[in-house]
Amino acid sequence: MGQSDHRQFQTAYQHVRGWAVMHLGTRRHGADDITSGQRNNLIIWNHNLDYRRTDDFLRAEYEQEKVAPDLRCLSYTHDRDYETFKEVPAGLRPQ
Q1: pLDDT of 10-40, one tens digit each?
Q2: DSSP state of 81
Q3: d(Cα 79, Cα 28) in Å, to the nearest integer?
Q4: Segments forming the whole domain that contains residue 84
Q5: Model pTM greater than 0.85?
Q6: How many of the other CB atoms lie within 10 Å of CB of 7?
């Protein structure tokens, strides 16, 4: 998060039944649309208030993006410039 390439596609993970995926929340992530079956998620949020008070956390600098984002990495709910690159999903545009 905050790096110039944070909206560039890096890897795809193919889930394996019975396995779990853990990652730092600062890693840009998402999920593909479900085309069949169902998906269950267990989401656990952890905070470290001591770390959030450190200079490393408080002085984190954000880099300007160097290239346009990969379209797979855009989020309608999280990217203010979404409409610059893609149309708003059907049913989400205000009336």
Answers
A1: 888 888 888 888 887 777 888 887 888 888 8
A2: T
A3: 12
A4: 1-95
A5: no
A6: 21
